[in-house]
Amino acid sequence: MENKQVAISHFGGTEVLEMQTSEIPEPKDGEVLVKVAYAGVNPIDVKTRAGIGWAAEQNKDNLPWVPGYDISGQVVKAGSNAELFNIGANVAGFIGFPVQGGGYSQYLCVPETELSLVPDSVTLEAAAVLPLAGQTAAQALNKAQVQEGDRVLILAGAGGVGHIAVQIAVAAKAEVYTSCSEDNLDYLATLGAHAINYNFAPVSQRLEQVDVLIDLVGGDAALDALKCLSDDARVITVPTITAELICEKAKLLGFNASGILVDPNKEQLDTMLYMVSVGLLKTEIYHIYPLTEADKAHQQIETGHTRGKVLLDMKC
Ligand SMILES: NC(=O)c1ccc[n+]([C@@H]2O[C@H](COP(=O)([O-])OP(=O)(O)OC[C@H]3O[C@@H](n4cnc5c(N)ncnc54)[C@H](OP(=O)(O)O)[C@@H]3O)[C@@H](O)[C@H]2O)c1
């Protein structure tokens, strides 16, 4: 048996994603070996592959590098002192973040304390949607201290982070507004948000008195959205590349603004898996590509118009 992985040996376009094989690793003390079923694909994977951002800087002397931070799969072997999971248990995790990665692997050793048990009623596909994107959504809303009755604007509600953020904000009884293209208006309405087509007119011309802005787009869209905030509004800007600019401008306007770097949290993933299991949270999957088509998965993320998440099927 071999361990197929998708790796990059230099930064560049999607053509630099190459298959490599390695030995199946042995779990060390406190680790389990996971047979990965699905790996989530996130914008940070795409940016790092292209040589952009902090994770690329950290990994530039550490190539080849296997991307991927979201995994779901099955425990197939336990190292010494690893006792939390039975062999055969379905698990999911937000692993190796932000430097190590490794999720685009068929087999991976992970400290058992970083993994969540996937309930029987949750598919491994749905579980792979949640780690990075779901926790970013939850942590951004927590940081903004969203409360019942708040008017919350989420830019890019249809994306991987956005579709989870919309649902958590609705569940918190906030009044949720979100921006999207025409194609996603109905989808976001079904999640309980007031959807605004950003191609029709700038969001600032359609909305006012917003208490909380969750910015998942950055740049000009975020600068425009600052115009519809109420006094003392809270701003969380998630794309790291423009965070400094948006925070500076927001603070000049008197708002409480900050960026965020998602922090893997097993208990939070447990909670989200529970919410999916009881129907309180719905995961949206745009497409599942075989691991041999990781390039197509990255191209899809690069369109900037993925609804929900893109996954890699690591089983084939
Ligand atoms: N700081 C952190 O720790 C952290 C963590 C996770 C993600 N991020 C960053 O957060 C951003 C969002 O991540 P993601 O995974 O949600 O990305 P994603 O899934 O690729 O987002 C795609 C979505 O963006 C929407 N969109 C594109 N342009 C838009 C615009 N001008 N206005 C409104 N919606 C727009 C698209 O909807 P339409 O097709 O309807 O346009 C699409 O559904 C990325 O920049 C990512 O790198 C940062």
UniProtKB/TrEMBL annotation:
GO terms for molecular function: oxidoreductase activity. InterPro entries: ADH-like_N, ER, GroES-like_sf, Lipid_raft_assoc_Zn_ADH, NAD(P)-bd_dom_sf. It comes from the Bacteria. Residues 12-312 form the Enoyl reductase (ER) domain. This is Zinc-binding dehydrogenase. It comes from Vibrio eleionomae. The lineage of its organism: Bacteria, Pseudomonadati, Pseudomonadota, Gammaproteobacteria, Vibrionales.
